[in-house]
Amino acid sequence: MSNDSSKLELAGKDYDLQVMRGTIGPDVVDIRKLYGQSGAFTFDPGFTSTASCESQLTYIDGGKGVLLHRGYSIEELSEHSSFMEVSYLLLNGELPSADELADFSYTISRHTMLHDQLRGFYQGFRRDAHPMAIMCGVVGALSAFYHDSTDISDPEHRKISSHRLIAKMPTIAAMAYKYSIGQPFLYPDNSLSYTGNFLRMTYGVPAEEYVVNPVVERALDRIFILHADHEQNASTSTVRLAGSSGANPFACIAAGIACLWGPAHGGANEAALNMLREIGTPDKIPHYIERAKDKNDPFRLMGFGHRVYKNYDPRASVMQKTVREVLDELNLDDPVFEVALQLEEMALNDDYFKEKKLFPNVDFYSGIILSAVGFPTEMFTALFALARTVGWVAQWNEMISDPGQKIGRPRQLYTGPTARPYVPVEKR
Ligand code: SDX
Prior knowledge:
mainly alpha; binds s-citryldethia Coenzyme A
């Protein structure tokens, strides 16, 4: 990594700040010593201009709509790879050989079962509990069952807990769905693929054999690939911050799940489909576009806009193509897809959206596919969390292994009252 220097003048004094250059992407100004030298903080609510860490996992070029995982484009990975292979790539840095992939998939498949006492944990939830509430609770509770893999200073513990989290998320998500519809849980069937196993646990019943539909399996596996990792997004930053205190990996991933739930983040896929259904027919689209542009109306086009992408989210392009494939191959027709296509068309030709560089993001089309294959909207974000777990885990491992890592502790610009004496209640 090459370095240049830059000068900052503050209150009449000059400060030399190193400029660090990565392999691709924007340079960063190293401000680690700024407060010590100048007594001033930088100010960046929302971290719009802040690099929180160095990473080698995922690169996004928001202006060009580029997304790379360890250098491989999301277009090629979603076309040619599998979620298990992308998981191996994110965790290990290189695409696996056939034997390496087989070993990794075998290892993951041997961690798919949950400690059986956790089945009782589900009974504590109301039947109408949101699956994300269950995911937060159950994943956090894993740290009460797997004490043999919570020592984060032990690389073997980190590896086992990483594999446990990736392997058990489908089981936990499927159980959340089964619990919500009052059907019995199905145990994993390790003769199936990672995604096929999840489909069977979700839609299978003990009363009959479940046959995985290869079209649905491939589409869902591709959706998992599209959601695997995405640089330092809000939930990943949450996982890193939780991990920086030394919290165990299960607790850190539970924190990431909680953050992902928000409608501005992973909750947008559920909100986007609900919005498309509320719009209902193409003739209603102009009204909703005007609402999205109205500063006095809190309504936003869900599935549109992105902090980093100021061009088309490459994942949305793949998702749109996959919608067509799934609807055609399942011989389904969903009028909501037509609404989505026309909404996209109108928004992309509207000056407001063009000026603010608002394009469809990963959440705009995903719900149409998930709905087409039978998932209720409440499960959409749980599926996002299932897929993003490998990214969270890979980023957590990268942070723990970074010799320079320390507890994250941002400062603030204080604008509250200055020191003042306590006033007894009788004198107030
Ligand atoms: C994900 O970070 C990641 O990588 C996240 C993610 C991942 O893989 O981890 O990609 C997943 O979270 C995708 C985003 C899903 N969220 C949504 O689809 C919700 C709708 N989108 C917005 O809430 C918004 O676009 C955000 C939250 C995604 C981004 O917000 P920013 O970067 O803080 O931008 P902003 O809110 O400051 O918006 C800039 C301007 C504002 O107008 P002005 O105040 O400048 O006049 O654009 C407007 C916003 O009002 N705007 C929108 C809009 N999104 C932004 N106006 C209408 N509809 C929208 N969707």
